[in-house]
Amino acid sequence: MARTLNNTYPEFVKKAQHLFWVKGYKTVTAEDLAEHLNVSKSVIYNKYTKDMLFMDALDSYVVSLSDPIMAEIRNSKEGLESLRKFFYMLIDALLDKTFPRSCLMVNTVVELRNEQNRVSDIYDRYFGNMRASYLAVLTQATKMNQIKNPQKVQDYADFLVGLIFGISVLYKIKTKTELHLYIDEQLALIE
Amino acid sequence: MRYKEFNTNKVLENCISLFWQQGFGSCAINDIVKKTNVNRFSLYKEFENKEGILLAALNLYYERYSSKQIALLDQEKPLKKLLKEFYLSFLEDIETHPPGCFMIHISTELADHNQSIKSRLDAYLKQIEKALITTLQRHSISETKSDQLSIQLTGLFCNSMCFCLIQNSQERVSYIDMSLDLILNKITQNGTYA
After folding, report:
1. What residues 115-134 of chain A have any CB closer than 8 A to a CB of chain B?
2. Does any domain span residue B41?
3. Residue B180 belongs to what domain range?
4. Min CA distance, B114 vs chain A (Å)?
5. What is the band of A3 on the pLDDT scale with cuts at 50, 70, 90?
6. CATH number, domain with residue B15
7. What predicted TM-score, i.e. pTM, was given to this entire model?
8. Residue B97 domain-assigned (yes or no)
9. Domain limits at A85?
């Protein structure tokens, strides 16, 4: 039976993203991609290369997944409560495997560090936007008198950015209750 | 009888740096042969399979590196200084290893699906938590408070072992410094830590 190429490029990226998320960047071969995307190897070698798919997978992680969530946090009027909701949601996604393995960006940091400039540019954008969103929440929370030391909001924003790294490890061995409690106690440090 | 022609720990040291640099999944047995100069047959005979090499490498890593870093907590020094030294000992750029923690690195890749890596991660973090509790109690912090704080401090360990990889050395120091202030400040407010 002839193969029908009715997949669009964004669908390829979505499928490739799942593969990179589960296996990491270095482990995935052109053969894996060809099989997973149901295309011939020459498509991966000549048209949609591994690097191209990987960069677009990271990009789509930022644009379609993280940016909308961060925009919601930034616009929330609930102050610190919106952060609690965000971290609880993240924990749920990790535990029920909506996120198949940790946070894709954290995985990439651990695997590739700063080896590739174009990947580092994506980190900057991702973590920069995250920090700016946390800062917006902290400003809102200050207005709501939820923050004990408003002069320290810059530190708090850095502290909060760090949390996603630890959660991406801890969910592997902790229960939902333990993780929620952990977040509550982290947030209590800035209240 | 033939004598073993290689030094096991030396081979494992090479494997630690190989897996740490390249990841475990993307290393073929041939990469290991090339890196260690030990042939496939001898490797299999000694370690059974690729996972056997990894588990032995993790043991050696603990024995040679992290157990000593955890032992830094036993020194007689002010609490914050002690903790800072402990975290930063993992974050130095040294010649053979990237900064961070090999156990966390391998767990990020494998602990979701590999049961033995998962239980090792669990045991490893419990070990750190225990050492932190002992340290906190030695500094006259109550049992309940120590338990609570040790969880926060273990969390900071996981945060920093990954976050540090994209921070420069100055950012690492200030991140640890600020986070410790924030966590330890919780005791100050209750008057138990001065």
Report:
1. 120, 123, 127
2. yes
3. 8-189
4. 11
5. low
6. 1.10.357.10
7. 0.95
8. yes
9. 60-188
Which among B23, B112, B185 is the nearest to A27, CB-wise? B23
Smallest Cβ–Cβ distance between B175 and the set A26, A110, A158 belongs to A158
Asked if the structure places residue A42 within a domain, the reply is no
- Which chain B residues touch A148 with a CB distance below 8 Å? none
How many distinct structural domains can be found in chain B? 1
Distance CA A148, CA A153 (A): 10
A180, part of any domain: yes
Confidence of residue A33 (pLDDT cuts 50, 70, 90): very high
Inter-chain contact B107–A158, Cβ cutoff 8 Å?
no
Is the minimum CB–CB distance between A165 and chain B shorter than 8 Å? yes
| Residue numbers in B near A113 (CB within 8 A) | 98, 165-166
Whether B194 is covered by a domain: the verdict is no
Positive or negative, the CA dihedral A108, A109, A110, A113 is positive
Q: In this predicted structure, what is the pLDDT of residue B194?
A: 38
Domain annotation covers residue A119: yes
d(CA A102, CA A97) in angstroms, rounded, equals: 9
Q: How many structural domains comprise chain A?
A: 1
Q: Is residue A50 part of a domain?
A: no
Q: Which of A172, A174, A183, A184 to mutate to test the interface with B (most CBs of B within 10 A)?
A: A172
Name the band, by pLDDT with cuts 50, 70 and 90, for residue B3. low
ipTM computed for the complex: 0.94
Instruction: From residue A119, give the alpha-carbon distance in Å to each of A177, A184, B91.
Output: 34, 32, 22
